[in-house]
Each structure stands twice: as C-alpha cells, then as structure tokens.
C-alpha cells in the first residue's frame, strides 16, 4: 500500500475530489480564514505569523507544566539525531507573546490587536473533532486592561462565526478573578478536598498540591463525581471587588451591544497568569464536551515568559470544529470559483496564441487555457467541468481577425469580443 498520512491529520482537498466532505474541502477552510481576516482586520487587527516550532520551555511556561498538553501531548522536534529542545506549538498565544516581547512591539500604539491562523499540534487520542494536527484562528490584544477590550474580543469572536452563517452558537462566560482571589479560593478547595484525598484521581492528587483549581477542570469521572458531591462553591462566587466590578462591566457592554451569553461558573482556567474574564464558545453540533473555541485574559503571561507586565487577552477557535458545526447546520459555503474564461485552440498553430491571450487576460480575471488543441465540443465540456463562466475556441479566423467568440456556459448565448476589449469585458464581468 502507498504511504498513508499520519493518524490524526487531514488533507485539505481541491474541488471535485472524490469523497470530498465539508471538513476536508480546501475552499471551505480558506473561506473561514478569509471571513476571519475580514472581520478582524476591520476591527484593526494586524496579521502576525510565528514559527510552528518553539522552545519547549516557552510552551511549558506559557501553557503550564501541569497541563495535559505539556505532560502528555507535546510533539518534540528532533534533528540531525539530536533533540533540540523544541516542540511543535500546541497553541498560538505563547508564541505571539514571545514575539511581542522579542520584537519590541510594546512601542506600537496600544492596544495592539494581532491575529493569525495556522496549524497546531497535540498528541491527543484521536476522535471526531480531536486531531493531532488541527488549525486555529487566533486573536490577541496586548497592552490594554479595560473591560471594553474584553467585551470587544468576545463580540469579535461571535462576529466571525455569525458572518460565517452559524446560528446555534452560545458564549459561556465566566471570570476566574485576580491572583489573590484565586489564592483564597485554592485554600478553600484544599480544605474541601484534603479529607477526601483517596477519592481523587492520581492526576488530581497531584493538582491538589500544585493547583487545586485544575481539579475542577479534570476529565476524570471519579473527580467529577466528587466535585458534585461536595457541592463546590464556584470561583465566580468568590471574586474580589475589583474582579467582580470588571466582570459586571464586561457583561454590561455585551448586554448593550446585544451579544448573547450565558454566565457559566464552571469555566475554569487554572494557570497563574490567567486573570478575570474567561469564556468558551459552544455549538450543539460539535457536542457538549467540545468547544468551538475559547478565550481569556492573561495579564501575567508576559512576566511568566521573562518579560515585563503586559496585559493581554485573546481567543482561538478550531477551524475543523467550525467546519463540523457548519456541516451540522447545513450552512452552504461558497464552492471554489471556476475560471471566468476558458480558452482553447482549434489547431496546434493557435495553442501558443491562446496561451498568450490567456496570460494577458489574467491581469483582469482568472483565465485558463487548454494545453492541446480541442474540438469545440470537447472544449465546452472541459470548460463546464472546470465551472468556467465563458469559453471560447480560437481558430485561424479568430486569430487573424483578433476577435473571440465567447460562449456563456450557463445560457449558451454567444457574443463576439475584440481582443483589444477583452480585459475591459472581463473586468466588468468580475465586478
Ligand atoms: P484550547 O487552546 O484548548 O482552548 O483550544 C481552542 C480551540 O482549538 C478548541 O475550542 C477547539 O476548537 C480547537 N482544538 C483544540 N484542540 C483540538 C484538537 N485536538 N483537534 C481539533 N481542534 C482542537
């Protein structure tokens, strides 16, 4: 058997591929990127791209040494037989904050809004919507702390999925408070769980010492049973005054703009550098346990990476999960367009001429040509398969007179267009 792609990866395929589905359709994928670009750049975000491999230490500090991502799911990079201490990035935020610090982006006007998209890597158990290479669209705002930035970030995330045509999306909004609120909350959790230590999963026994809040995030059924039984008070009811005021302010903005959300006290982000606002975007088509995306404020991250204090907030959603949600709602995405014009030549003598006309016309539109002479019947059939709007077959007569006989493949109507007017004609058709 020919070599297969690695488990947990996908090929994105061109239009017309056999067995094409929405989640592997390259044009659907790029459509999501295009919509995200449009929505985010209109809001002032600038594109940034960072390497797909980074120092492992960046990810350990940026994502957290106690997370599954760092403990179990890192793809390490080996070269020349040496382990270089690099890993394939599992998410985008740490790399962007590293670049912000390294490139001195603090000098740019704040808040600095950045966005990117690209592949992320986690060695997870593969299932629907859970891949080892997946793709995220990522938005980050650096250098501003106000609740207005948080509310705008949430509204933009909702804006992208709305513009894609998705309807059944819910924002689950929470707050994880300030570090001192969390310290108090962690002390409360330690007091609550310690008498039941033996009932916690091994991972959570570990968490109880290092970071009890992460127990609430545990995927273990054993832990979740205990959490329910102990009727744990949520972090959201333990916010300090400043964090509570910030949360109320974020909600007031969203209410004012008509951005719907559900307050969800179960949203947890246990790492030290997270502050205040945290949320997830859910869709029933993707399943209750898997989010379309998530976001949060991370004012402590830059310091964690060895830089100064830089307030930040950001979100990411998975493109593959979005495609699952779009498919579940039956949203029709624009298929990749065909050429505006397909040109063929009757005989060998006109092939190079047709190719030249096509190349010049490409200044105005997408134009394809046949590499061998074609009879009109074959040329029109090929043009249709490529989903062209117009087709023309150039014979010696057309070449001499400098005129194309364009056939509209939808209506069958024919019209003569002088070569001198072709560019203008195509520009008008493209408008
Ligand atoms: P996270 O960085 O874990 O908050 O993930 C943000 C988003 O990325 C999730 O809501 C998913 O949409 C997507 N995502 C995370 N992990 C995977 C994965 N293994 N496969 C596909 N999408 C993923």
- The tally of strands reads 16
Structural class by helix and strand composition:
alpha+beta
The level-1 CATH class of the largest domain: Alpha Beta
In the CATH hierarchy, the architecture of the largest domain is: 2-Layer Sandwich
How many strands, which pairing sense, and closed or not: the largest β-sheet?
8 strands, mixed
End-to-end Cα distance: 48 Å
Estimate the strand proportion.
15-25%
User: Strand arrangement, largest sheet?
Assistant: 1-5-6-11-10-9-7-8
In percent, how helical is the residue content?
A: 25-40%
CATH topology of the largest domain: BirA Bifunctional Protein, domain 2
Tally of alpha and pi helices: 16
CATH homologous superfamily (4th level) name of the largest domain: Bira Bifunctional Protein, Domain 2
Please tell me the overall pLDDT. Answer: 92
Low-confidence stretches: none
The shape is elongated
State the domain count: 2
Subunit structure: Homodimer.
GO molecular function, one term: histidine-tRNA ligase activity
Protein name: Histidine--tRNA ligase
Catalytic activity: tRNA(His) + L-histidine + ATP = L-histidyl-tRNA(His) + AMP + diphosphate + H(+)
